[in-house]
Design a protein that fits this description.
131 residues; five-stranded parallel beta sheet; alpha/beta; Rossmann fold; 19% strand; 34% helix
Length: 131
Amino acid sequence: MAAAFQVNDTATEAQRPSVLLVEDDVLLRLVTAEDLRGAGLNVIEASNADEAMTILDSAVPIDLVLTDIRMPGSMDGLALAAFVRQRWPELKIMVASGERPAQAALAVADAFLPKPYDSTAILARLKTLMG
């Protein structure tokens, strides 16, 4: 998997791309986070949009937000993506779901990822989005 997204082995943690992974399914979040870390990425985990917004408001550097669409809490993943796009337009956004939403709803994101997650597909998309 690490071959799909190359990170310099000598890069410090601060130099590695950071992904905010927003997923309410604990097992799926843990497995996905581990796969992303295995590819050399910094991963910050959140179980819902409320936690994600707290993290985004902190000083933690984030390069990309990967969020599930259907989540409990004050907003779903599409609302979170719209909020992030408005407040931090420089951040890349990937949304994921088991059901593909209408194309108009996906306009707030840079990429859509079908679920179940395929780590190779996630890493390939990340590489494309983050250069």
